[in-house]
Amino acid sequence: MRAGYIENHGSVENIKIGDVDNPRIGNLDVIIKTEFAALNRLDLFVVQGWSGLNLKMPHVLGSDGSGIITEIGPDVITDLHVGDRVLINPGIGCGQCSQCLSGRQNFCSKFSILGENKNGTYAEYVKVPSRNVLKIPDSYPFDKAAAAPLTFLTAWRMLVSQAQIKSGEYVLIQGGSGGVSTAAIQIANYFNATTIVTTSSDEKTAKAKEMGADHVINYNQIPNYAKVVFKELTKKKGIDLVVDSVGTVTFNTSLKMLRPGGRLVTCGATTGPKAELDIRSIFWKQLKIFGSTMSNYQEFHDVMKLVLNGKFSPAVDKVFKLEELQDAERYLGESNHFGKVLIQI
Ligand SMILES: [Zn+2]
């Protein structure tokens, strides 16, 4: 089958398009003929590699996807049928350990992500456990279905389960143009929060407003935006909850903007993983810092229900063909996109 894969770690130039073996179905798996896949920054990290990541090569990239079931494993007991239109939950627990059996799949010691340590969705066919697919209505388009899962399940767990967002709060989302951030804007609005988004250009400012952000700050125009947030936007109250997956560049400013007792939630560090902190700023203001990664299956179903019934709509920036995967990954790396970058398989 045709696929986008790597044989060695390195740069985006290492991504190849060519033929690889079709996936072999396991007893509890389904095989999906992929229609659309969506890029995530995780792709770029996987291409680079990190110590401890030992992939079996060739490794097919891609975490998000949608398509049609073509095969169902013999031991699958669900209402799934060949021909069903589905989207994929990219977070895969082992299904057998105490964490998985108690519904905490993202704490499973064998937890894996499609495209990270399992062959992913940039391929004509992808194999996943049957419990990782969700049927989509006939009227729901495959492109949006591929754009939603990873970012919405991540943002939902961050804001709802971990940081416990409440109605009326001031929520500030750092770097509001990525997939997780555009999902976070919509989720914060759903909970009637006042949303403040930081971003890097006038074009992205306009799009973040379209997405429902109440206030958008272009940090290239207002480098000292923490003051504006404190004095003008929150009327000297401070932010209740900061969503920060930007990392090194923003982390200290994020902590500074929080009100006493405020919370910060992080799921990533796109500008780098290290920041020098003044620990006093944490205990003086009695801040809470939450880490979050992926979601459990319940959270996935809770947020996808809201996606599929139209309450949330994933932002789609641009669609590339599978043959253009290198260009698509380069485009993602340049960070000029707003929302998801898709691959039509
Ligand atoms: Zn497990």
UniProtKB/TrEMBL annotation:
This is Zinc-binding dehydrogenase. Gene3D superfamilies: Medium-chain alcohol dehydrogenases, catalytic domain, NAD(P)-binding Rossmann-like Domain. Pfam families: ADH_N, ADH_zinc_N. One of its GO terms (molecular function) is acryloyl-CoA reductase (NADPH) activity. InterPro entries: ADH-like_C, ADH-like_N, ER, GroES-like_sf, NAD(P)-bd_dom_sf, Zinc_ADH-like.
